[in-house]
Amino acid sequence: MVTAPALVRGGAVHLLDHSPAEHPVALQLGGSDPVELAQAARLGERAGYAEINLNCGCPSDRVQSGTFGAVLMTQPALVADCVAAMREAVDVNVTVKCRIGVDDQDPETVLPDFLDHIAGAGCMRVIIHARKAWLQGLSPKENRDVPPLDHELVVRMKRMFPGLHISINGGIGSLDEVQQFLDAGLDGVMVGRAAYHQPADILCAADRRIFGATTPETSAEDAVRVMLPYIEAHLAQGGKLHQVTRHMLGLFAGRPGARAWRRVLSEGATRPEAGPELVERALAEVAAFA
Hints:
The protein has helices at residues 4-8, 34-46, 61-65, 76-89, 107-120, 151-160, 175-183, 193-197, 199-209, 220-236, 241-245, 258-268, 276-287, and strands at 2-3, 26-30, 51-56, 93-98, 101-102, 125-129, 132-133, 165-169, 188-190. It is of the alpha/beta class and 290 residues long. The model has no long low-confidence stretch (mean pLDDT 94).
């Protein structure tokens, strides 16, 4: 996620840098000015992103003060203007990620109206985090857990808007749950924290179970080995090992050796001389428990 002002006014186009290995990858933009968002969307398309997504779900104070994120749930007409401007500016998909409402809004009323506005502006794909955002009284972290989930409301929105590609997000922690939502008629499922904290449980089997791939299931060990050339390239460009490995700490979650894996990387990855050999040593620690 990058703010449109950072790209357009701040010239921070380096924030768009990414590896070809990440494709297909989406750029999420924060903002509420249609002209500025259109300019930022062009920069994203030029940088090779396959999708431009408008953030209408983030509840942080900083986001509210900038009039973007979840607070935009209260301004569906403005969101529609933003979507229309972005669609006019780029050829790639323009999508929206939103909540089911904010504060004292009634989601049963607010969400259909919001979806009607963005669909009218030509947005055909939306990701719905099935929680309200409480802009007053809850921290951003609490907003990820405290407001109750209403998955059924999102399922009903798919029935109400059959032409919209609707994905559901929020509290989904297994591929069994993913399949249940797909069977219920939703077009997609976004798995966030579970895929980050227990990536092997979600990602190693997803291609086969969800997409019907016939390739062999991958493993956490496979992922580590495939990451080694990526790490070498990152270090060669002046990066630090911990910038990569801190996102790999959950790879062996729930398995024997997971603690040793985390310990080796946490203690050693910040050292100036740390390189791929440290990752291989951490992997050897896991193998010792096999």
